[in-house]
Design brief:
Largest sheet: 6 strands, mixed, barrel
Structural class: alpha+beta
Distance between the termini: 186 Å
Strand content: 5-15%
Shape: globular
Radius of gyration: 53 Å
Order of helices and strands: HHHHHHEHHEEEHHEEEEEHEHE
Length: about 475
């Protein structure tokens, strides 16, 4: 038993081996000399700015707000107190706005007028003499007084300011009178905007009412003569039903209700007029529009125009006969129907005026209006020619309008040219009737053995002559 223990101890010693001496500690490295670093401040990490808060806004285009006005902007800064105090003081952050406008003067100067149309002394031979005694119409001052008032009313709404074009739309406005015939005329030198108004289902079944300023009626009107319904009535009746439904709905604000009532009332008036009257049609009828200021009861006197007065529109060397057909805004002048506008500028339409410059002359003959009726363009030309003759005559071309409302007559089919007669070939002469010779007797057939009897000769039939 002891031998086994000794043997086990020996085996254990062999397997484990002798104990190893402990490993020496690693040597401590010699420190390197430290180079001194200058004391440079370390920049703080960049601060991320907070995001800009979203502020809903509307982009304002300065050119549109000021409608062609010259704009000069200056920024003045000054020292304040504290942000809290300055924020509460209105004058610390303000805009001083001054609108400067030069109001033009009317004139009677022929040379100034000739700068706009040098052919006028030729077109109106008596114009130089008429200008010597001409008077400036008081309506000119009224017109520009109204323009200035409109500017004042729009100072808090700069987008409603009159445009430069519409402020300077009249060069002069004169009262002319022939010393011999006493014929009076209003001489207006202005631009030409395009009027697209009017409808007449009796003459023009369909009209284009797409223009943003379109109105179905004109001041010149007459009683309808047929039962043909105006094509503009059904769309308005449908709109009225739509507005009435919205008005009856819940939750409609007071301001919107007032808008709906006004729209319904306006549409009902238009429908009533279209059922009763016919009107001029801008695309077919030559007429001009004068501002409401010219029809004032207290202005104009013997030179006060009326709807229906005859007039002539002059551009270059052409005179266009027309009538005063509509009353426009109080403070704007220089407007004619699209029928006239397209003769002056084929590109004219509801959005494009016929003439930007003040090169159009409107010669109105006050006191010549007649009972309104279906336009008779040939008669209008005759009347205008008569009144031109009473104020010194005219040169150039007095335009002749074609009535576009009448169906065009198809060109007549030319009659066929007469056929060229062929040389007649003489017909063969009809032979004269001859008296036939007596027929040779023909022996009659006999049956033998009978003895043949001699045949009795009979005269041949004579042919009847041809009827002549």
């Amino acid at each position: 038993m002891s031998d086994r223990i000794v043997f086990a101890l020996l085996a254990l010693l062999v397997l484990t081996g002798c104990p190893r001496p402990p490993a020496p500690a690693p040597a401590t490295p010699t420190p390197m000399p430290v180079t001194p670093v200058p004391n440079t401040p370390v920049p703080p990490p960049p601060v991320t700015p907070p995001p800009t808060p979203y502020v809903p806004n509307k982009r304002l285009e300065v050119g549109k707000i000021f409608n062609g006005m010259q704009i000069r902007v200056h920024l003045d800064t000054d020292y304040g107190t504290t942000a809290t105090r300055d924020r509460g003081e209105l004058e610390s952050y303000a805009v001083d706005l001054t609108v400067k406008v030069k109001v033009p003067k009317p004139h009677r100067d022929l040379d100034e007028i000739k700068r706009l149309n040098d052919a006028l002394p030729e077109v109106l031979p008596a114009l130089p003499a008429l200008l010597e005694s001409a008077k400036v119409s008081p309506v000119f001052d009224d017109l520009y007084r109204l323009k200035v008032a409109a500017l004042k009313a729009s100072l808090m709404r700069l987008d409603n300011l009159l445009s430069r074009h519409n402020f300077y739309d009249c060069e002069t406005l004169l009262e002319l009178q022939d010393p011999k015939t006493k014929r009076r005329a209003l001489f207006i030198q202005a631009d030409m905007d395009s009027d697209t108004d009017g409808s007449d289902s009796d003459r023009v079944p369909e009209v284009d009412g797409a223009s943003s300023t379109f109105q179905p009626s004109t001041s010149y009107r007459w009683a309808k003569k047929t039962a043909v319904q105006n094509s503009l009535i059904p769309p308005r009746e449908a709109k009225i039903k739509q507005w009435e439904a919205e008005l009856a709905a819940n939750g409609v604000g007071a301001a919107r209700k007032e808008e709906l009532r006004e729209a319904i009332s306006r549409a009902q008036r238009e429908i009533g007029d279209m059922k009763t009257f016919s009107f001029l049609v801008a695309n077919a009828d030559p007429y001009i529009v004068l501002p409401g200021a010219m029809f004032s009861k207290n202005r104009g006197g013997a030179f006060k125009p009326a709807v229906g007065d005859y007039c002539v529109v002059i551009y270059g060397k052409t005179l266009y006969p027309a009538i005063v057909g509509d009353v426009g805004p109080m403070n704007l002048i220089g407007e004619a129907s699209l029928r006239i506008g397209k003769e002056i500028n084929p590109k004219a339409n509801g959005e494009n005026r016929a003439m930007n410059d003040l090169k159009v002359t409107y010669l109105v003959f006050p006191g010549t209006a007649e009972k309104a009726d279906t336009p008779d363009l040939a008669k209008w030309r005759t009347k205008c020619e008569k009144y031109l003759g009473e104020i010194g005559g005219y040169g150039g071309e007095l335009f002749a309008w074609e009535d576009l409302t009448k169906p065009k007559t198809p060109p007549a089919t030319p009659a066929p040219a007469p056929a060229t007669p062929m040389p007649s070939t003489p017909a063969p002469a009809t032979p004269a009737a001859k008296t036939p010779a007596p027929a040779t007797p023909v022996p009659a057939a006999t049956t033998p053995p009978a003895t043949p009897a001699p045949a009795t000769p009979s005269p041949a039939a004579t042919p009847a002559p041809k009827p002549e």
